[in-house]
């Protein structure tokens, strides 16, 4: 078995400087996928070099797409069009990446060949029925473990029929999988969702020339469509910036400028939540880049207050709850997070993982069926925690370590490569101690 990396961190004060976070993970996946499905060349820059996006890149190479890598984050994708993909010679490994597996399933469901998708031990435990069900309704044949609900998934693709699909959960992965199948299918496919989930697929498909319609409560596409190759610049990932936003707020005497961060309203729940808690976050230099809003974020140490977080705010900050829980520990009063049962089926059960880590370090966090209740203790004593192999738990605990009284040891930290290569170096760079 591979040896798991372990790190011990001590408190830091006076965080200062400019931070450039890596490219947005959701946008990077889609850029690789849609450029592969487009006709002609697309140059992509600012792409996330994390392991998750490598899984998507390797998947499209396995499907016969030529992708030249100029340097680390600049790529040229030679798109093959919707009918140019080839049957892969081997099983496609999606690694830890739910986005790779679920979105590619939507693409492969309509392709006239056989493919198999698998992933690491964590991804193979995650629920796939949510995409298997609508894609099967459209006529795809998808087989998997546990009554076709878990990977490996075997897909026998082919001509599909359009559907109107009401998703029980606000999930961009479900919405995107159905739209990607729908855009290859003759007729109109519509997806309804209970709250608006991230809309990067809709924005980027339009950017590649697809006349996709978004409306309150969902999106629709009439297929078959064609995508035209386009050059694309990926903005910094707000989910990676979130760690430095929280650090900037809870560490005394901190002031950080986070450059070039995507602030798409379907992703910016973290800014709203931290501001509602009393955090000082300014948006500077707001602009639009390839259909996505972008800004620089200036964050300064602030006194925080606990709040209730639920409803439409939850999907808008779904990946940020581990680090929000660290902010809540350093707020006055109680923070109650509900309507967030989805956290139980992320890279790990993030409700149990976050509560166990915070309690282990001397905080007070109580799991709820669909969220958690965090009492602001204003301090953590320190100790040892595990990341549960989850990149966002590892990085959240690193932020907690900045303000803990004693040392914090985090076991299993190599998983940060999933979404944030260079995280530990960046954290060291902004420490002035
Ligand atoms: C993602 C959607 C979200 C998010 C994940 C990335 C995407 O998942 O948690 O990290 O890129 O579409 P769900 O669709 O399961 O909510």
From TrEMBL:
3-phosphoshikimate binds at residues 25-26, 30, 171, 173, 319, 346. Its main location: cytoplasm. Keywords: Amino-acid biosynthesis, Aromatic amino acid biosynthesis, Cytoplasm, Transferase. The active site is at residue 319. Its EC number is 2.5.1.19. PROSITE patterns: EPSP_SYNTHASE_1, EPSP_SYNTHASE_2. It is found in: Cytoplasm. It catalyses: 3-phosphoshikimate + phosphoenolpyruvate = 5-O-(1-carboxyvinyl)-3-phosphoshikimate + phosphate. Pathway: Metabolic intermediate biosynthesis; chorismate biosynthesis; chorismate from D-erythrose 4-phosphate and phosphoenolpyruvate: step 6/7. InterPro entries: Enolpyruvate_Tfrase_dom, Enolpyruvate_Tfrase_sf, EPSP_synthase, EPSP_synthase_CS, RNA3'P_cycl/enolpyr_Trfase_a/b. CDD domains: EPSP_synthase. Catalyzes the transfer of the enolpyruvyl moiety of phosphoenolpyruvate (PEP) to the 5-hydroxyl of shikimate-3-phosphate (S3P) to produce enolpyruvyl shikimate-3-phosphate and inorganic phosphate. Monomer. HAMAP family: EPSP_synth. This is 3-phosphoshikimate 1-carboxyvinyltransferase. It comes from Pelovirga terrestris.
């Amino acid at each position: 078995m591979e040896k798991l990396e372990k790190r011990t961190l001590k408190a830091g004060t006076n965080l200062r400087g400019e931070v450039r976070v890596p490219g947005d993970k959701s946008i990077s996946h889609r850029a690789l996928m849609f450029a592969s499905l487009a006709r002609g060349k697309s140059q992509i820059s600012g792409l996330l070099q994390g392991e998750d996006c490598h899984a998507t890149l390797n998947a499209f190479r396995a499907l016969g797409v030529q992708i030249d890598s100029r340097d680390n984050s600049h790529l040229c994708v030679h798109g093959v069009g919707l009918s140019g993909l080839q049957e892969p010679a081997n099983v496609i490994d999606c690694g830890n990446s739910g986005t790779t597996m679920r979105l590619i399933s939507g693409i492969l469901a309509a392709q006239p060949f056989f493919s198999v998708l698998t992933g690491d031990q964590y991804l193979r435990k995650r629920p796939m029925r949510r995409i298997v069900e609508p894609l099967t309704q459209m006529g795809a044949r998808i087989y998997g473990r546990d009554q076709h609900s878990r990977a490996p998934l075997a897909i026998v693709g082919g001509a599909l029929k359009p559907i109107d699909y009401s998703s029980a959960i606000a999930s961009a992965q479900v919405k995107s999988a159905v739209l990607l199948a729908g855009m290859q299918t003759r007729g109109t496919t519509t997806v309804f969702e209970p709250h608006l989930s991230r809309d990067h697929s809709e924005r980027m498909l339009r950017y590649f020339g697809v006349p996709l319609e978004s409306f309150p409560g969902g999106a629709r596409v009439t297929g078959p469509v064609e995508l035209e190759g386009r050059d694309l610049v990926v903005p910094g990932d707000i989910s990676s910036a979130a760690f430095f936003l929280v650090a900037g707020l809870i560490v005394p005497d901190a002031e950080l400028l986070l450059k070039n961060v995507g602030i798409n309203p379907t992703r910016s729940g973290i800014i709203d939540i931290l501001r509602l808690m009393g955090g000082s976050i300014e948006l500077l230099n707001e602009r639009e880049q390839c259909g996505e809003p972008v800004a620089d974020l200036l964050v300064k140490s602030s006194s925080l207050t606990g709040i209730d977080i639920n409803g439409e705010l939850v999907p808008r900050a779904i990946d940020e709850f581990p680090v929000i829980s660290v902010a809540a520990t350093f707020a006055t009063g109680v923070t109650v997070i509900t309507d967030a049962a989805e956290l139980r089926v992320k890279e790990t059960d993030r409700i149990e993982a976050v509560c166990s880590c915070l309690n282990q370090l001397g905080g007070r966090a109580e799991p709820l069926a669909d969220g958690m209740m965090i009492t602001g203790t204003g301090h953590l004593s320190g100790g040892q925690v595990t990341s549960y192999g989850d990149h966002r738990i590892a990085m959240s605990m690193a932020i907690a370590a900045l303000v803990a009284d004693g040392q914090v040891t985090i076991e299993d930290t190599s998983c940060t490569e999933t979404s944030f290569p260079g995280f530990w170096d960046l954290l060291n760079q902004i420490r002035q101690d």
